[in-house]
Design brief:
Layout (H helix, E strand, L loop, with lengths): L11 H9 L3 H18 L5 E6 L3 H16 L16 E5 L7 H13 L4 E3 L4 E4 L2 E5 L9 H21 L7 E5 L4 H9 L2 H6 E7 L2 E2 L5 E2 L8 H14 L3 E4 L11 H4 L3 H8 L2 H27 L4 H10 L2 H4 L14 H7 L3 H12 L27 H7 E8 L7 E3 L5 E6 L5 H23 L6 H19 L18 H14 L1 H6 L13 H4 L30
Parallel strand pairs: 1-2, 1-6, 2-5, 6-7, 7-10, 10-13
Antiparallel strand pairs: 3-4, 4-5, 8-9, 11-12, 11-13
Length: about 550
């Protein structure tokens, strides 16, 4: 196989333009590396380990894998008696204020229809060969003794699944989250048998790769030495490490409603009440807080005075389970209220919540759904299908240099990128279709969702309070006198939030929306933001494509 080393690139536009100029002999080597890497990380005859959070996008990605494994016969045997059980290991990241382990166990319990069996002092829960393991707090990896215990617990779970599942060979594929340090510790300290079983690794949302190599918002704990150490291990083991980045895959939208049709309705099929309720409560709290911040900015009242207004407009008994920030005076200082009344991002966020009031725990403005960058890898994804739309580009990464990466044959690192001809619209449609398929599988077992009077009553109360707050700023109703105290254009934008409150998807699902409003989530309004980025990856001429100007094509070495 021909070796190759491309010119250094500062951004993906440069990188893609240089790939187009790759000589044919080097291109064949490039394609062979990509094909082998995708086959490794999509290997259905390997045991896949997923390190995960329990935010909404993570739960949906796990659902995709679980329902696929449970509905697909093993390729190892056509004899039903010898078919391999659905098998995977899920490592839940420890996080202060959130029990990811309990939440993921609840998800698997819901999808598998069984309670599971707990082991190792309750830190492992086995649903046959689908095993959930309590992981580590990636923000606090300081105690070596605890780390050793964590590694031993994970090893025990992996060995158990290898024992009860009928894999033709001991092969392991590890799908890691944004923080790399623990993965390095596991590779260094695990047993030689498990280390030698590794066939591939994916790293999700650790790096922002659009303009060089930078930490992502979720990868802030990583240090350059972590990447260097991982590269050393991967070279010794002769395995690919594929970096998954939502933006470089053209997954550019921040809200699930863009990718999930009628999300506000079908979340009740995807997730049980105990999992969706915290997201609903968070959304209601954020929505009420936003509306009253805007009113406060228009009327120039802040702090405790705003809290008094909120309490006078909400039913205490109905709001007690979820009201937090909206009844805290510190949420309504002058700066916060004025920001809400002038920020397009905050208004857009409120618009999304009014349409589908289920908020992610860790929404980062401007950053898309990290777990959705995993949808086209793993045992639920066909290697052949993934190769039809994506390339696992071999790259040399150097976070210490301004020119962050180059195509190279001698590196274990890859970036999963869409092939030529792909754009945001096509990728979005593909994700929508995939998740519709997942929904259908879940719906066949769990049925259609049912919404009750409790949900209706809570929403009617929230709409009433928010409508009153916004009437003071959007020029509508008796309180419209506040309109002139906001920046020009803001009252008109805020009016869209009010319209979604009164006639959005959630209100329609509950039967309380205005008659005739049957807007579909993820339609033109939801997808408009960021559509201009749709073709930057493979067209990349000029500076007006959101990623910086493309440099001229350089010669290959």
């Amino acid at each position: 196989m021909a070796s190759f080393s491309g010119p250094a690139c500062k951004n993906l536009i440069d990188f893609m333009k240089n790939l187009k100029s790759m000589p044919s002999d080097k291109k064949s080597a490039f394609d062979a590396i990509s094909k082998a890497s995708i086959e490794a990380i999509c290997d259905t005859d390997a045991l896949h380990v997923w390190e995960t959070d329990s935010d909404l996008d993570n739960l949906l990605q796990l659902t995709q894998v679980i329902v696929k494994l449970r509905s697909t016969p093993s390729s190892a045997s056509q004899n039903a008696k010898k078919e391999r059980a659905a098998a995977m290991v899920i490592i839940t990241e420890e996080k202060e204020g959130r029990d990811n382990y309990a939440r993921v166990c609840e998800l698997v319990r819901y999808l598998a229809g069984s309670d599971g069996r707990k082991h190792l002092n309750g830190n492992v829960c086995a649903f046959d060969a689908i095993v959930v393991v309590r992981g580590v707090d990636n923000s606090n990896l300081t105690k070596e003794t605890d780390l050793a215990a964590d590694i031993k617990r994970i090893n025990t779970a992996i060995e158990r699944v290898f024992k009860i599942a009928r894999f033709p060979r001991r092969k392991l594929v590890w799908h890691h989250g944004p923080s790399i340090s623990f993965l390095n510790s596991w590779i260094n300290s695990t047993t030689s048998d498990l280390r030698s079983a590794l066939r591939g690794i994916t790293i999700t949302a650790a790096l922002d790769l659009a303009d060089g190599v930078k930490p992502s918002p979720l990868g802030r704990h990583n240090k350059p030495d972590d990447i260097t150490q991982l590269q050393t291990y991967a070279r010794r083991l002769d395995i690919p490490v594929v970096f998954l980045d939502p933006a470089s895959q053209l997954i550019t939208f921040e809200y699930l409603a863009t990718y999930m049709y009628y999300w506000a309705f079908y979340i009740h099929t995807f997730l049980p009440a105990r999992l969706r309720r915290p997201h609903h409560h968070k959304a209601l709290d954020e929505l009420v807080t936003f509306c009253f911040r805007v009113r406060a900015a228009a009327h120039r009242v802040y702090g405790a005075s705003v809290v008094a207004m909120v309490k006078s407009r909400l039913d205490a008994a109905a709001a007690r389970p979820w009201a937090s920030a909206c009844i805290d005076a510190s949420s309504f200082d002058k700066a916060q209220c004025r920001a809400a009344a002038s920020s397009d991002a905050q208004i857009h966020h409120a618009l999304q919540l009014a349409d589908a009031p289920f908020a992610r725990f860790a929404h980062v403005p401007g950053y898309a759904l990290p777990a959705f960058s995993r949808l086209f890898v793993g045992p639920a994804a066909s290697a052949a299908a993934t190769s039809s739309y994506y390339v696992a580009a071999p790259v040399e990464l150097n976070p210490k240099l301004s020119a962050g990466y180059r195509a190279a044959s001698a590196t274990p690192f890859r970036i999963l990128l869409p092939l030529p001809g792909q754009d945001v619209e096509k990728v979005t449609a593909r994700v929508q279709g995939l998740m519709m398929g997942v929904l259908e599988r879940v719906r066949m077992e769990r049925g259609m969702p049912g919404l009750g009077e409790r949900e209706r009553g809570v929403w009617v109360g929230v709409v009433r309070a928010c409508r009153w707050a916004l009437e003071g700023v959007d020029g509508v109703g008796a309180e419209g006198k506040g309109k002139g105290r906001l920046p020009e254009g803001v009252p008109e934008k805020v009016r869209f939030v009010r319209e979604k409150l009164e006639g959005g998807t959630w209100g329609f699902a509950l039967g309380v929306a205005e008659k005739g409003n049957k807007e579909k989530e993820g339609g033109k309004g939801g997808q408009g933001q960021g559509q201009g980025q749709g073709r930057w990856m493979w067209q990349g001429q000029g500076a007006g494509q959101g990623m910086g100007a493309a440099a001229g094509v350089q010669m290959w070495g």
